[in-house]
Design a protein that fits this description.
Helix content: 55-70%
Strand order of the largest sheet: 1-2-3-7-4
Strand content: 5-15%
CATH class of the largest domain: Mainly Alpha
Number of strands: 7
CATH superfamily of the largest domain: Cytochrome P450
Number of helices: 18
Number of domains: 2
Oligomer: single chain
Length: 430
């Protein structure tokens, strides 16, 4: 009898969950059907944080099973990178991924996208979904309206020429270390990992004023665990989906795998470091010390300066500064690393482009050692290098721009057809 009760205690919640998923899927399917656009049905919402943490690990087991083609093709993060234009070529400029959570409009039409961007008050950022990024506090990525304007005004002042000089010097130092490491290898198959290290070290220097020597992916680490800010930040950024899904306060729960313990330790180290850096920044600002142009010090100074203005909405709170520091690292780390990785791989296939940018670099730098170069003098002259970067970003978009149709139905024209999007439809430009 006890065994039967245990069985019922397990099967009833599972059956209830399955029925709820099927009901939600049916509701969203009927909503999507009213648009007249092609539909692809998926069993799981790709925006579900828990699914995002395991999707690429689980999907390979379904590859060879029948009736799972769409599931394994569209139901994971970054499927657009692998699929490229193929889905739109087969299905159309616009189609909807129907899931139990939300409907996702995949859109590949320049005129329609221009129209959406022009109607910014109608098609807004999905702040409810982005709220998961409030790991340490509200930030530029999760606020909207006047609050977003306040965050934007204060944080924008931190990205200035002084901070760019720090980035310039650190990038050259890290790139020199990476070049030496690559030169010591007979072949390189760790480009992705190596540029992530470069990006991490630059973020650590520009964000916190902590600089570390470059270390290749196959070199033995000089530190273990998450005792310093670099290693803590690396663990956090490498496991950001799990952190976002569970939150830092839940990472030490007994029911989580022991392998997640280092991530919990990293969040504690990172929080403590931010707190200490914040207090140091406040003291420096109070003493009138304007030295130290790292992001944390700049945010503290800018926030305090904004608080003193009569017409101000107020500076950033301590938690908001922490939230912005983390989201800048989220946003800057992967986007920089991915752009570098794709750019290097693309240039490797184009000797003519290599010669083209080498000609410019030799002309601008001459015999000068890059490590002694001046940012303000050299960077504006590297137009070909900037063009290659822009082309890389055009071909390999670092971050998908997500919009939502908001609380009201929205009319949208795709080619020669007009469609009515149901409320809260997510929009992904392709």
């Amino acid at each position: 009898m006890a065994g039967f009760s245990l069985f019922l205690g397990f099967i009833i919640p599972v059956a209830g969950w399955i029925l709820y998923v099927l009901y939600s899927l049916a509701v969203n399917y009927n909503k999507a059907k009213t648009t007249g656009l092609p539909i692809v049905i998926l069993p799981i919402d790709s925006g579900n944080p828990l699914w995002m943490a395991v999707d690429t690990r689980i999907l390979p087991y379904f590859k060879n099973l029948p009736f799972t083609k769409n599931f394994t093709r569209f139901n994971y993060r970054g499927w657009e990178i692998h699929d490229r234009y193929k889905a739109h070529q087969e299905i159309g400029d616009a189609f909807i991924l129907v899931t139990p959570g939300k409907n996702w409009l995949q859109l590949c039409n320049a005129e329609t996208l221009i129209d959406i961007n022009a109607r910014g008050k109608e098609f807004t950022r999905p702040t409810e979904m982005l709220a998961m990024l409030n790991v340490y506090g509200p930030n530029l990525g999760t606020t909207e309206g006047t609050q977003w304007q306040r965050h934007r005004k204060i944080t924008a002042t931190c990205f200035n020429e002084n901070n760019n000089e720090i980035v310039w010097s650190e990038v050259i130092r890290q790139a020199t270390g990476m070049r030496k490491y690559w030169s010591s290898k007979s072949s390189i198959n760790t480009i992705g990992d190596d540029v992530r290290t470069l990006s991490l070290h630059v973020m650590s220097s520009a964000g916190f004023g902590k600089s570390y020597p470059y270390q290749g992916a196959e070199e033995e680490s000089d530190t273990q665990g998450s005792a310093n800010i670099r290693d803590a930040l690396k663990l956090i950024l490498d496991n950001c989906i799990a952190l976002v899904a569970l939150g830092p306060k839940n990472l030490d729960k007994w029911w989580l795998p022991k392998s997640w313990k280092p991530l919990h330790e990293a969040t504690v180290t990172f929080q403590n470091y931010m707190t200490n850096a914040y207090e140091e920044g406040k003291k420096a600002a109070a003493d009138g010390n304007t030295h130290g142009n790292n992001l944390m010090n700049s945010l503290v100074r800018a926030s305090q300066a904004e608080s003193k203005e009569a017409s101000s909405q107020g500076g950033l709170t301590e938690q908001e500064i922490y939230g912005n520091i983390l989201v800048f690292n989220f946003a800057g780390h992967d986007t920089t690393a991915n752009t570098l990785a794709f750019g290097i791989a693309s240039i490797a296939t184009r000797p003519d482009v290599q010669d083209w940018i080498a000609e410019e670099i030799n002309e601008v730098l001459g015999d000068q050692d890059p490590e002694t170069s001046n940012y303000a003098e050299i960077f504006p002259r590297l137009k070909r290098c900037l063009a290659v970067t822009y082309e890389t970003v055009r071909l390999f978009t670092p971050v998908a721009i997500v919009k939502t149709s908001g609380p009201e139905p929205r009319e949208l024209k795709v080619n020669d057809s007009t469609h009515i999007l149901p409320p809260h439809t997510m929009i992904i430009p392709s």
